[in-house]
Design goal:
Layout (H helix, E strand, L loop, with lengths): L21 H21 L2 H10 L9 H11 L3 E5 L5 H9 L2 E5 L16 H8 L6 H16 L5 H13 L2 E4 L2 E4 L2 H4 L2 H9 L4 E4 L2 H5 L11 E5 L3 H7 L3 H11 L13
Parallel strand pairs: 1-2, 3-6, 5-6
Antiparallel strand pairs: 3-4
Helix pairs in contact: 1-9, 4-6, 6-7, 6-11
């Protein structure tokens, strides 16, 4: 994740309500209007089912409390507003407690089409639909539990499993490939790219391969991993992931397939 951001968190009042301006609500409205037709076309059924269950507002930024009310009934999860950027230890700790950390700000018009750090549109529109499904909810909790148990030096290895599944995973569906990950669902450009771009490498889901695959957060991914069924995630959650991380470390990272980021 990025190390800094120009955005500041919006804090809930005493009732848990976050006050968004009419301009911020309009950004949500326009993002949802732009993305929903793409999601209907390219997103996997579990994501679409989750959206239907949540019935998110199309015209204003949803409140974490109202989303949590639905999630608690379905999977026992909640959504908690957090600062724009949090560390891995806090992230894993919250997942382990079935609490999803949601950056509370929404992007500006200047960043409408792309924002490097997660905002409330990515968090709520992108992430919470999968958390209505017990399978994805349990897998997310397992990632958090492993994160609490592993050494801090292993965080970067573990987060790749989350990145290439919950964030940017694909899945086989109806003799085709659909987007599953939250980062894809909330990204107008990468959603199409992940499913249709012919230069993209789409690899079979394999835990060790995923742990060894580096990525950049600021580009469309050149590599995606494709689940055959959601059951593969359930199987992965039952593995000794700390042992898997140690094996991946012993084998080493694959060579990146993307250019190095140029620093100013």
């Amino acid at each position: 994740m990025p190390k800094s951001t120009k955005y500041q968190a919006k804090h809930p009042d005493g009732t848990g309500y976050i006050h968004y301006t009419p301009e911020e609500d309009a950004v949500w409205r326009d993002l949802a209007a732009q993305q929903t037709p793409n999601v209907q076309k390219y997103a996997a059924q579990p994501f679409l089912d989750g959206q239907a269950a949540l019935n998110l507002s199309a015209t204003r930024v949803p409140q974490c409390n109202e989303v949590s009310e639905v999630l608690r009934d379905l999977t026992g999860w909640s959504v908690a507003p957090v600062p724009a950027l949090i560390g891995f230890s806090k992230f894993f700790g919250m997942l382990a407690e079935r609490s999803f950390p949601a950056a509370s700000f929404i992007r500006s018009r200047e960043d409408f089409d792309y924002i490097e750090e997660p905002d409330i549109f990515h968090e709520i529109y992108g992430h919470t639909p999968l958390l209505t499904d017990q399978r994805f909810a349990d897998f997310s909790q397992k990632i958090g539990q492993v994160g609490l148990a592993c050494d801090t030096s292993e965080y970067a290895w573990l987060i790749r499993l989350y990145w290439f599944t919950i964030e940017f995973g694909l899945i086989s569906e109806n003799d085709g490939i659909k987007a599953l990950g939250s980062g894809l669902a909330s990204s107008p450009g990468e959603l199409w790219h992940s499913v249709n771009e012919q230069t993209v490498v789409r690899r079979p889901f394999d835990v060790i391969d995923i742990l060894r695959t580096p990525y950049r957060i600021d580009i469309n991914q050149p590599i995606y991993f494709v689940l055959e069924t959601v059951d593969q995630l359930l199987e992965a959650s039952q593995r000794d992931l700390i042992a898997d991380i140690k094996k991946a470390k012993s084998l080493g990272l694959f060579a990146p397939t993307y250019p190095e980021k140029q620093h100013a």
